[in-house]
């Protein structure tokens, strides 16, 4: 017989037995036969397996014979409509429209002592009322007063459970889900000790409830007899997965909802009451996600939520990503607090193995160690990366898709979350190390940094250095040197070589005038950078990491020192790459310098370097005049790469506006403008290989030895610009002796 059919047959048999007890005289000839029929039914029911809901309910709540009869009586009209007539006929309450306590007491008890004892089954502490198996309605209008006149009604969760209807009520279904998980504990990657403790607690829960009752704890513990867990940790670390796996392990349903979905204006007491009743009836695990929405420090509903937690005698799992937001009272109501963390490399590898079933067609070498070591992902993110790769595989080859290492890496890249925009600026370049002009010494240092980043996971994990280091597992670099020498560009290039996002710290957004906000911002930056697998760039680090004041004269000084301390701690704990740049190495805090692994000093390029920079920065598409000589510009203008870039772009704008090719005159004028902006003097403008200066009549003619005579450089530059602008006149095409005509 199918389970559903057997369940229905059992219920019909029970209703028939109760009907026999309602009919006839209590002392009539048919009473003994009705009692015998009921006794046979009850014995069979108590011996039946838990797969029959009524048998499970009877055993779980340790119902006595009278309480079981009352439950079947309240159920009767839902099974056999004609039972309503029999109930009305048997009731002494003239106005009764259902089952009353008086009816149950009078028809199921044969002497006064039994009736007095039976009344206790309807007290608040009784199994029927405390576990919300039934509800007691108001006394009927016109009926006799007192407990006996109150109506008995099965709660909707009880009725649905007994009838094997695995659905929630319409109102509750809008907020919660009833599931019957099949996920195995094998899929949960957690340290063995914690997993074993949690498993034992859940496995032994029914015995635990029975024993605390037998040992008298019910009398001394009016509330808080349930098993309440707190699973706390970052998103995607397996909190809800463990709850579902535990439910599957003990073959129980799980009833889950997010506390954030509970409307603030609706009655939270009724919603929680319905949830607890459903979970109690089905002996399921109650999972409340984002529990800080109800149990937060400032939430006005926390008193109601605490009451629900205390009253529930089943298994409750509270889940949060923000344990710091919970009210202090939560801790007193938790039996077991299990913290979750982002898994280390070894656990991540196990998660990759679990999430790649043996049926998956793999092509080529799949290096799970590389994936685990490179991407600091939680279990949930690893799952998403694999599923994303599956979609890529289908798009690539719909008829015969397969996973490759390349697709899995693309899936990982797609999971990187960039939540740093408020406090940082994302920067990127398509350039690589081969595209930047650097002297041999700094180039060698930069290559070392790139090599360190590529081999970081192997050195820390495979070679075991990670076990020896508590802090300092990341890569911290300092780039110092004059402005415009390529420090920031080099940081962008390193990020490009690593295929990682680079975020430049936006100092005005990070530093706040409000106490505690700066520290909060700093922690958020490093936390998000770790999740996003991002590199951090502290440009002009001297403004944040200036030497701390030994003697603090004000609260501002103290807070400034605290901020530097926190930054140093976060840098030391950060497992990724941090690059700091400064134009003033000497002003940096010594504690920061001690934490630097790689220092690269950038110097202004020499003549050969400048020549290469001019050549590299000028695009091949640019129309150059025949007179352009990058070699000459490099010789006569001692400029950094940044200055050369600015001069080149400014000259290009000038040429484009004039409708001509880019000429040497445009470039020289731009170089002089850059010199003026930088407060520098041209070494000897008279030897710059330009055409003969054409000075307007109203201009001041300056001698060749203008520098020796103390003529202000601003005047010389103005004259030079005037000469360049006049170079289109008749005699401007004469050769100046160097072979460069205008």
| Share of residues in helices | 40-55%
Main sheet makeup = 6 strands, mixed
Strand content: 5-15%
Which residue ranges are poorly predicted, with pLDDT under 50 across at least 5 consecutive positions?
689-718, 720-742
Average per-residue pLDDT, rounded, comes to 82
The separation of the N and C termini measures: 105 Å
What is the rounded Rg?
A: 40 Å
CATH architecture of the largest domain: 3-Layer(aba) Sandwich
Total strands: 14
Tell me the layout of helices and strands.
Layout: H1 3-22, H2 30-47, H3 53-60, H4 65-79, H5 83-90, H6 101-108, H7 112-119, H8 127-130, E1 134-139, E2 150-154, H9 156-162, H10 170-173, E3 176-179, H11 192-203, H12 205-214, H13 217-220, E4 227-232, H14 239-249, E5 254-258, H15 268-281, E6 285-289, H16 292-295, H17 302-311, E7 315-320, H18 329-332, E8 336-339, H19 345-354, H20 368-374, H21 379-396, H22 405-415, E9 424-427, H23 440-462, H24 465-468, E10 475-480, H25 487-498, E11 502-505, H26 507-510, H27 517-532, E12 535-538, H28 555-573, E13 577-582, H29 590-594, E14 598-601, H30 607-617, H31 630-636, H32 641-658, H33 664-678, H34 713-725
Parallel strand pairs: 4-7, 4-8, 5-6, 6-7, 10-13, 10-14, 11-12, 12-13
Antiparallel strand pairs: 1-2, 3-5, 9-11
């Amino acid at each position: 017989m199918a389970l559903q059919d057997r369940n229905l047959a059992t219920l019909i048999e029970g209703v028939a037995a109760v009907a026999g007890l309602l009919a006839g005289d209590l002392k009539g000839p048919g009473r003994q036969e009705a009692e015998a029929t009921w006794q046979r039914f009850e014995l069979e029911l108590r011996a039946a397996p838990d797969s029959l809901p009524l048998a499970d309910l009877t055993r779980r709540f340790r119902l006595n014979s009278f309480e079981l009869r009352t439950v079947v009586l309240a159920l009767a009209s839902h099974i056999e409509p004609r039972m309503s007539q029999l109930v009305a006929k048997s009731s002494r309450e003239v106005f009764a429209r259902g089952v009353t306590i008086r009816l149950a007491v009078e028809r199921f008890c044969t002497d006064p002592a039994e009736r007095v004892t039976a009344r206790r089954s309807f007290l608040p502490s009784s199994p029927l009322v405390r576990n919300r198996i039934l509800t007691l309605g108001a006394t009927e209008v016109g009926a006799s007063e007192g407990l006996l006149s109150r109506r008995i009604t099965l709660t909707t969760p009880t009725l649905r459970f007994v009838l094997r209807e695995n659905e929630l009520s319409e109102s509750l279904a809008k907020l919660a889900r009833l599931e019957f998980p099949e996920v195995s504990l094998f899929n949960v990657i957690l340290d063995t000790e914690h997993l074993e403790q949690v498993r034992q607690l859940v496995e032994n829960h029914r015995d635990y409830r029975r024993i605390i009752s037998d040992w008298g704890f019910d009398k001394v513990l009016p509330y808080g007899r349930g098993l309440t867990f707190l699973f706390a940790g970052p998103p995607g670390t397996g909190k809800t997965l463990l709850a579902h796996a535990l439910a599957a392990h003990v073959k129980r349903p799980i009833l889950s909802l997010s506390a954030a979905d509970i409307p603030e204006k609706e009655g939270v007491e009724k919603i929680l009451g319905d949830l607890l009743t459903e979970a109690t009836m089905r002996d399921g695990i109650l999972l409340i996600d984002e529990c800080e929405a109800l149990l937060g420090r400032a939430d006005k509903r926390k008193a109601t939520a605490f009451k629900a937690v205390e009253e529930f005698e089943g298994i409750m799992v509270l889940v949060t990503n923000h344990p710091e937001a919970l009210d202090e009272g939560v801790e007193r109501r938790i039996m077991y607090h299990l913290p979750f963390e982002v898994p280390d490399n070894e656990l991540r590898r196990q998660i990759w193995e679990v999430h790649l079933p043996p049926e998956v067609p793999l092509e080529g070498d799949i290096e799970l160690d590389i994936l685990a070591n490179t991407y600091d992902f939680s279990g949930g993110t690893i799952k998403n990366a694999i599923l994303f790769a599956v979609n890529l595989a289908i798009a690539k080859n719909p008829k015969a898709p397969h996973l490759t290492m390349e697709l899995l890496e693309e899936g990982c890249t797609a999971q990187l979350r960039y939540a740093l925009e408020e406090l940082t600026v994302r920067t990127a370049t398509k350039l690589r190390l081969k595209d930047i002009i650097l002297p041999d010494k700094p180039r060698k240092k930069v290559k070392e940094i790139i090599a360190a980043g590529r081999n970081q996971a192997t050195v820390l994990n495979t070679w075991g250095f990670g076990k020896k280091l508590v802090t300092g597992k990341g890569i911290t670099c300092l780039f110092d040197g004059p402005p415009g020498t390529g420090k920031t560009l080099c940081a962008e290039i390193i990020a490009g070589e690593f295929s990682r996002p680079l975020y430049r710290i936006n100092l005005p957004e990070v530093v706040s005038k409000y106490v505690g906000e700066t520290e909060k911002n700093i922690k958020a930056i490093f936390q998000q950078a770790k999740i996003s697998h991002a590199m951090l760039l502290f440009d002009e680090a001297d403004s944040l990491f200036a030497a701390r004041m030994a003697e603090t004269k004000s609260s501002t000084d103290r807070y400034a020192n605290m901020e530097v301390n926190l930054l140093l701690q976060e840098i030391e704990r950060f497992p990724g790459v941090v690059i700091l740049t400064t134009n003033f190495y000497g002003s940096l805090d010594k504690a920061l310098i001690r934490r630097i692994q790689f220092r690269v000093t950038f110097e202004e390029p020499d003549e050969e370097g400048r020549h290469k920079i001019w050549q590299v920065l000028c695009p091949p598409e640019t129309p150059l005049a025949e007179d352009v000589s990058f070699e000459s510009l490099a010789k006569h203008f001692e400029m950094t790469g940044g200055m050369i870039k600015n001069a080149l772009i400014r000259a290009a704008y000038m040429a484009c506006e004039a409708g001509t090719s880019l000429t040497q005159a445009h470039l020289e004028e731009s170089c002089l403008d850059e010199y003026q902006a930088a407060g520098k003097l041209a070494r000897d403008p008279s030897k710059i290989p330009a055409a003969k200066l054409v000075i307007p009549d109203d201009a001041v003619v300056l001698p060749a030895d203008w520098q020796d005579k103390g003529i202000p450089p601003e005047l010389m530059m103005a004259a030079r610009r005037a000469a360049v602008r006049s170079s289109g006149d008749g005699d401007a095409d004469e050769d100046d002796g160097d072979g460069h005509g205008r």
